[in-house]
Amino acid sequence: MPKAKGKSRRHKYSYNLNRKRLYRSARRRAAPRIACSHIRHAWDPHKSVAQNLAEMGLAEDPNKAVPIPKKLLGMEVESDGQQPGKKLVRKPYVVTEMELEASLPEKKSNTLSRDLIDYVRYMIQNHGENYKEMARDEKNYYQDTPKQIKRKINVYKNFYPEEYKNFIASLKPEKMEVQ
């Protein structure tokens, strides 16, 4: 098979193109992406990252902020008793707001899909605790095995214990009426 035309030709380097200017303009446009809203509101775009973080009382480099003592490294050096110069914190509210936000309890956002809840309720309503029968049911679209169905029911029990108890309690009168 013949080669495509122009593939074997040597590519020429463009000497007239100023690549430094291209890269510099792309770097200038990129601003730091800040995830924390407290830092974002206190950020001054006219200052460097180090200056902004120092004003907020945050560390730019954690290794410099909390150095490893020389004793742990195996070297014993006597200190002069001088502490390194502390920087002036002009925006202490940023750290206090971040600490308050971190101290809040985490919301439990574990929920099950409505389809899974309906599926589990249907299976329990029609088959009780017979998992082999549930696996053969026509509504078992995903062809779950008895163990998989049992696991889904247990997940439902753990996520919604009150709702599960009420559902089971509502099923008992129906079974008494049928007999």
From TrEMBL:
GO BP of this protein: ribosomal large subunit biogenesis
Localization per record: Nucleus, Nucleolus
UniProt keywords, alphabetically: Nucleus
Record flagged with keyword Disulfide bond: no
InterPro entries in UniProt: Ribosome_biogenesis_Nop16
Main location: nucleus
Keyword Transmembrane included in the entry's annotation: no
Highest taxon of source: Eukaryota
GO CC annotations on file: nucleolus
Family: Belongs to the NOP16 family.
Protein name, entry field: Nucleolar protein 16
Organism whose genome encodes this protein: Copsychus sechellarum
